[in-house]
Design goal:
Elements (H helix, E strand, L loop, with lengths): L1 H18 L2 H14 L1 H26 L5 H8 L3 H28 L2 H24 L3 H15 L3 H11 L2 H30 L5 H20 L12 H43 L9 H26 L3 H25 L3 H27 L4 H32 L1 H22 L8
């Protein structure tokens, strides 16, 4: 009897973690139906404005993947040096994200996002001139600056979604932002390949244009709620974060790791594909290569949006979709060990793995964003995104190193990591009660 009572208490605690505001949101939706239809109609504009932020972020990395081989040739640099153009960006973002998370909690989300977009675009121009002058040093410095600015974009946007919406609407918005992230990954290889037809470094100069569009959308379309409380002093703030990690660290840290792994595999696979497609026997280059790179990512985009729309903070469904997603990743990646030389089958398996990622990430986003109060949300979502960025940073160089050893080692390693993550999620993340 005591065990049953304890189990019920644990489930109720987890329910309160991820759905404290669900009833308030239901009341808000009812009032919207009665007399606030204007606000409801404008909500999709807010959704679109928020979605531009992760889209710009992804373009900053993924759009460069197709031109890495050209960069190696034009700038006379090694494969490892070209991978650092991706890695240093992501590493700098990962390091600065916790600081930015605190600042976004102390001030406002838009006060961080707006200057971040401006710096991000300006650093893109500097990176472009570094490429024109064939100065690897200037290029790398500019990419590091872009990474620092990137810390104030998508991670803060995730916290902003948690501030603006509750319950099912929040899950839908988070699913849309993850789909926007994935859309950027789909479009960017094609866009990068098309821009390279002008000149190989044209993608760098395209960044400011995308940043300007997102900046206008954020300024004019997003009305941020007023802060109800003053941010605590740093010492008290850090103590509150440590208390959260002590109480919920087991499942939060597991969620952080799972999200990081998903992007580590995704960007590593993109780097792998970009390098092998141009070589015999495939000889696929230019825009055609961009379309091939986009195929697995399209599966992720559609799945991410659909997942965000249907989960509605349903704890049982979230758990099942995370497990199914990881199972798909394990099976598909393990199968590529035997079929990586058969291109059509190989791309199909990678698409299945990306679908698994599309099931996993929106569920993790919903759990993590709803785990804490608004006052600490910026830091918790920033820690999560910090590990996601580090996963992206490690992917290309580690995949490049494994490729030099053996293609099979690449997929044996990532399928084993996915299997370990499946076990961790199965045992440590258990929102086993429907939250509605």
């Amino acid at each position: 009897m005591g065990a049953t009572t304890k189990s019920r208490k644990l489930r109720i605690t987890f329910e309160s973690d991820i759905n404290a505001d669900f009833e308030a949101e239901s009341e808000s939706e009812q009032s919207g139906k009665k007399g606030q239809s204007g606000k409801r109609k404008g909500q999709w504009l807010e959704f679109m404005a928020i979605a531009t932020i992760p889209l710009v972020l992804v373009l900053g990395n993924s759009m460069l993947v197709p031109i890495l081989p050209d960069m190696q040739q034009e700038m006379s640099i090694s494969r490892f040096q070209s991978s650092l153009v991706i890695t240093l960006f992501s590493f700098a973002a990962g390091v600065f994200i916790p600081v930015i998370g605190y600042l976004s909690d102390k001030f406002t989300r838009k006060a961080i996002i707006i200057p971040s977009l401006i710096i991000y675009g300006a650093a893109g121009i500097l990176a472009g001139f570094g490429a024109v002058w064939k100065s690897y040093t200037i290029l790398i410095i500019a990419r590091a600056i872009q990474g620092m600015a990137a810390a104030g974009t998508a991670p803060v946007a995730m916290a902003l979604v948690g501030d603006l919406y509750n319950g099912a609407t929040e899950s839908k918005a988070l699913g849309l932002t993850e789909a926007s992230n994935g859309t950027g990954k789909v479009v960017s290889p094609i866009l990068g390949s098309l821009l390279a037809l002008i000149v190989w470094y044209a993608a760098f100069f395209a960044f400011p244009v995308f940043c300007a569009l997102s900046l206008v959308a954020v300024i004019w379309l997003i009305k941020e709620p007023e802060k109800k409380k003053e941010a605590p002093m740093l010492k008290a703030y850090l103590k509150s974060i440590m208390d959260i990690l002590k109480q919920k660290g087991r499942w939060l840290i597991t969620s952080f790791f799972a999200g990081s792994l998903g992007l580590f595999i995704l960007f590593g696979v993109l780097f792998y594909l970009s390098n092998i497609l141009e070589k015999a026997p495939y000889n696929i280059d230019g825009v055609k290569k961009g379309f091939v790179l986009a195929i697995p990512l399209l599966g992720m985009v559609v799945t991410s949006y659909t997942t965000g729309a249907v989960i509605k903070k349903n704890g049982v469904l979230i758990r099942w979709l995370m497990l199914i997603g990881l199972i798909l990743m394990v099976v598909a990646l393990a199968s590529t060990i035997f079929f990586f030389q058969k291109l059509y089958l190989f791309i199909g398996l990678l698409t299945i793995s990306s679908i698994g990622t599309g099931l996993l990430l929106p569920c993790l986003n919903t759990l993590i964003t709803g785990a804490v109060e608004k006052e600490q949300r910026g830091m918790i979502t920033s820690l999560y995104n910090c590990l996601r960025f580090l996963g992206v940073a490690v992917g290309p160089p580690l995949f490049g190193w494994m490729m030099e050893k053996s293609d099979r080692i690449v997929f044996i390693s990532v399928s084993a990591l996915s299997l370990v993550t499946l076990g961790l999620v199965f045992f440590l993340i258990k929102p086993d009660r429907q939250v509605n």
